[in-house]
Amino acid sequence: MNDDAHTLTGAYALDALDDIERARAERHLRDCPSCAAEAAELRATAARLADASATAPPPGLRERVLREVAGTRQLPPRTAREPLRETPAARRWRVRTAVAVAAVILALGTAAGTWAIQEDRVRDAREQAEQLRGERERVAAVLAAPDAATSTVPAGDGGQMVVVSSRSLDAVVVTRVGMPALAADRAYQLWLDIGGRMVSAGLMPGATALVEGIAPASRVALSTEPAGGSPVPTHPVGIATLK
Question: What stretches pass through the bilayer (predicted)?
Answer without folding.
Answer: 98-117
